[in-house]
Specification:
Blueprint lengths: L1 H23 L1 E13 L4 E6 L1 E14 L4 E13 L12 E14 L6 E15 L5 E10 L5 E11 L4
Antiparallel strand pairs: 1-2, 1-8, 2-3, 3-4, 4-5, 5-6, 6-7, 7-8
Length: 162
């Protein structure tokens, strides 16, 4: 009887702790633009729901025809701009590391695309992003001239358990 009671109390405590940990998790929907600063260095900055620097740390092209395919790793350093005021003051800040898969249809002009898309799951984080979970998706759209617009959309969960 005592063993059953202890097992029941332990089970209830485990459920309560799991629920308490889950209740502290907060998911942020983020969207905005990635603006390339230095394509050769893999450097960009993020505006919108994420504000900060974006760096490609590893890039490997795996196919070039008929669809360009690539994979690699990236790092974001900045904040989730909860107030959408372009500032990180009072917002969760840190570093997020991602892997990515990229697909694009090349255009006739070199270094241009008809369209592009990529998938970026979070693999780790530091600061307020420690233990973060989530994913970003990005879409590349050509604009006039030799530029490409990159829009992103995703979810970042902070305080995630397990």
């Amino acid at each position: 009887m005592r063993a059953q009671r202890r097992a029941l109390v332990a089970g209830v405590a485990a459920v309560a702790l799991a629920a308490a940990g889950t209740a502290q998790a907060k998911t942020y929907r983020v969207s905005g633009q990635q603006i390339v600063d230095d394509p050769a260095a893999g450097a960009a900055h993020m505006t919108g729901g994420l504000v900060g620097k974006w760096t490609t740390t590893n890039f490997k092209q795996t196919a070039n025809s008929p669809i360009v395919r690539a994979k690699g790793a990236e790092q974001f350093t900045g904040c989730i701009d909860r107030a959408r005021d372009g500032s990180c003051t009072g917002d969760p800040t840190g570093t997020l590391r991602f892997t990515f898969q990229y697909w694009a249809k090349p255009a006739a002009q070199a270094d241009q695309v008809v369209w592009g898309a990529c998938y970026h799951p979070i693999v780790s984080g530091t600061g307020a992003f420690k233990g973060a979970k989530g994913v970003l998706v990005m879409a590349d759209t050509p604009t006039t001239g030799a530029t490409t617009r990159t829009d992103y959309l995703g979810n970042v969960t902070l305080g995630a358990v397990g």
